[in-house]
Specification:
Layout lengths: L4 E6 L3 H12 L4 E5 L13 E3 L3 H11 L3 H7 L1 E7 L9 E6 L1 H13 L4 E5 L2 E7 L2 E7 L4 E9 L8 E4 L2 E4 L11 H7 L5 E7 L2 E3 L9 E3 L22 E5 L2 H8 L23 H7 L7 E6 L6 E5 L7 H8 L10 E3 L2 E7 L17 E3 L9 H19 L13 H12 L23 H12 L4 H23 L1 E2 L1 H10 L9 E2 H5 L6 H7 L1 H11 L3 H12 L1 H18 L17 H10 L4 H5 L6 H10 L3
Parallel strand pairs: 1-2, 1-9, 2-6, 9-20
Antiparallel strand pairs: 3-5, 4-5, 7-8, 8-9, 10-11, 10-19, 12-19, 13-17, 13-18, 14-15, 15-16, 16-17, 21-22
Length: about 625
Amino acid sequence: MLDKYDVIVVGAGHAGCEAANAAARMGSKVLLVTMNMNTIAQMSCNPAMGGVAKGQIVREIDALGGGSGIVSDKSALQFRMLNRSKGPAMWSPRTQNDRVMFSLEWRYLLEQNPNVDFWQDMCVGVLIERNTIIGVQLAMGTKVYGTTVVLTNGTFLNGLIHLGEKQFGGGRAGEKAATGLTESLVAFGFEAGRMKTGTPPRVDGRSLDYSKMEVQDGDENPSKFSYGNTSALSKQLPCHITYTNTHTHELLRTGFDRSPMFNGAIKSSGPRYCPSIEDKISRFADRDRHQIFVEPEGWNTVEIYVNGFSTSLPEEVQYAALKSIPGFEKVKMFRPGYAIEYDYFPPTQLKHSLETKLINNLFFAGQINGTTGYEEAACQGLMAGINAHQKAQEKEHFILSRSEAYIGVLIDDLITKGTNEPYRMFTSRAEFRILLRQDNADERLTPLGFELGLADQAALDKVERKQVLTKQLKTKLREIGISPDEANPLLVAKESAPISQQVKASSLITRPHISLTDLVSVSAQTATAVAEVLNEEPLAVEQTEILLKYEGYIDREEEQAQKHQRLENLQLPNTLDYFQIKSLSIEAKEKLSKIQPATIGQAARVSGVSPSDISVLLVHLGR
């Protein structure tokens, strides 16, 4: 009944949507299998995209030609650039989103592509011949055949929801768990594990007293995620901040004996950097309050997401504790928070292309690999979709290095180090974060996306024009002189040393607390040069300032990245028997045999492999 497909994608969450979109845009015939057509790209937890390091990932997805940035912009309620007070490597875009619009925009984007077909059913198994996947088995008895398969099952694999002492099967509240697939994969030799995540209660915004909370508005001049033609917000919805207190904590503790977190019902690892409220007050007993972010779920709903109050305590305990929070005294709860346990597959079983080592043409992406977060899932889906297409068309795989993208850092961390708790991206995980800024993702990745056939000509033209304008403005600022009469009033006001003779505008920009906007206010020549570029491409102005101010740091990091790349270029044969290399440590032999690193650079990042082990490998390779 169904055709044979180039790429079958199982699961229509953030990873599945990106995988289907990428493969289809590149020309593959794609089938997207989902258990529910009405929950495509559902924001299962918080209604937001981006944040620290995550915002950089969304920009990278967009630069390559993915959909998350576009969908985020079209469904945004609020935009904020986080960490503006820090260096540009830390600047991280974030949107608050309309949950329903986000899902609809993703479905619309996929439906506009004639290469995408949809099928509503549960995948219960994989079809394998001679160590190669040939299709999937669906619950209603249908077998669908494809050249490649991407599994993006999220929290649905044998999902078990915990609410106080109650347990029930489910992949999300109100949706059944996916069964059979884990068992099918384990039968073929895959190792599986369990992880846990959670979500907070949702409440009625009409019942809250916002006058008792701090207002958190969006940026005065909001930007956007996509480098394309989406529009920045002209109006925004505010978020609010309030706090728990000692009484809240006392009320929460009354339910600890019935908490699955503490009574042994939950045995798996949860996200370290997004703990439940009961975990917070247990681990940080000295803290008398914790921040609560009050986030709207959409333009046309009163539903509120209580960020910071993730919990699996009994619902009556949740409700009593909520009412003790300022502004929540008369709160009405729509639905309680809960925890969910689900199956995942340790990602050391994958290649850097996200293809499994055990079964040819089978790819894993998203929470099935042990990650947490929409953005981490989406970028894996994008890379798996690209590589599934490449494999189906018998083309070379596409891999990003750690110096090219946060996406490269994330995948390399997973493949090389594995994870036994939900993996979340942070800027601190990247060695080259000055190079991997949110403002230059287009320059880093759009040419690569264009070569793949994913990013279009208009995107490439825009990047190239931005580069030209940036270069022109940098040159002009190195030529424009600013006199002491022009500069010194500004410098004194900024508590910076005055100048005694004319200096170039570019040198003043390198001073702390002196911005290009400051120089525009005191130098007519600078104002003219900036205005010419600002009218055509504002991002070129921002990037010019960053490149001039941090030039020394950027040059040093580029040099380090080149040294790093030399090790990445030294390939290790996949037939290498590490146990036959006598001078390697026992731990190195075991770890390298399990991970099977592709390069010397990757081998050096395997936990337990020492610099002396790397020297032995280099000698073994004749280096």
